Amino acid sequence: MNSPVFSSLLPVVLLIAAGYLAGRRQWVGAHAIKDLSNLIFLLLAPALLFRSMSKVHFEQLSFTPVAAYFIGAGIIFVGMLAWLGLNRRAAVLAIASTFSNTVIIGVALVDLAYGPPGLVVLLTLVSLHSLILITSATVLIELMVAREHAASNSAPSQHMLRTVGRALRNSILHPVPLPIIAGLLYAQTGWGLPAVIDKPLLLLGQAFSPVALVLVGITLALTPVGTHLRGAFAMAVVKNVVHPLLVVGTGWLLGVRGLPLTVMVVAAAMPIGANAFLFSQRYKVAEELVTASVVVSTVLALLTLSAAMALAGRF
């Protein structure tokens, strides 16, 4: 593993380890996780994302690397449905096998490893991540629910349309994509951020990475894996290993090279994101397995991310 990879990953590992210690020693209890999560997602993340995108113009964005990421995710998603059957459990496990932790771990790691240019590439993905994956899974599951509980020809469709519309709205009016979109739109004005606003946003943004990574460690310390280790490991391998390999292949076919491909491969190698767990909770399907998969995937990512970063640097 080369020096840039080591120097980028070591702070991440140490901050997660510090959080794990705090959780094990009960310096931070389970009751505080929700408050810390709200602090990160409602204050620190929006400040970082808005400020990062407030200097980016549309011509700097490239969606081809993002397409490579989603094609890889789509192959896994369809493969999971083909393997497990067209049912709610399969859809939940498919979203868990494709949804990366692009914010808490991804933003922190990419910012440390690749700086602002890499962060812009990642945030282009982040702005569409939940919108495409969560909404697609919601549409699929609601179709299954409508089929299972159909009482008439019209009522299920109306219910599904309301749910899908709500999913689309929530995917946009969310503390992650909304500041990205707002910052990008503000950048097009050419006004720049006044120092009196830019400085507080900078300080809040700088707090994001350490607090978010410590929260990952606390969550790991307080989450039991239980009896689902084998299934969780299989899902973690699909997410952490198969997904980035597919992104490498699709990226090369689409002509993506250099930093954009590197960032997409690293994003695909990220562990399973918390939204997958929330999704399983919402539909009350495979909750314990998905929870265990998030934990195993996060631990495994310490190895797979190291490999992905080392290999991606050669593209």
UniProtKB/TrEMBL annotation:
GO terms for biological process: transmembrane transport. Pfam families: Mem_trans. Coiled coil: none annotated. The keyword Ion transport does not apply. InterPro entries: Mem_transp_PIN-like, Na+/solute_symporter_sf. Its main location: membrane. Keywords: Cell membrane, Membrane, Transmembrane, Transmembrane helix, Transport. It is found in: Cell membrane. The chain crosses the membrane at residues 6-23, 35-54, 66-84, 91-114, 120-146, 167-187, 207-225, 232-253, 259-278, 290-312. GO terms for cellular component: plasma membrane. It comes from the Bacteria. It is a multi-pass membrane protein. PANTHER family: AUXIN EFFLUX CARRIER FAMILY PROTEIN, TRANSPORTER AUXIN EFFLUX CARRIER EC FAMILY. Belongs to the auxin efflux carrier (TC 2.A.69) family. This is AEC family transporter.
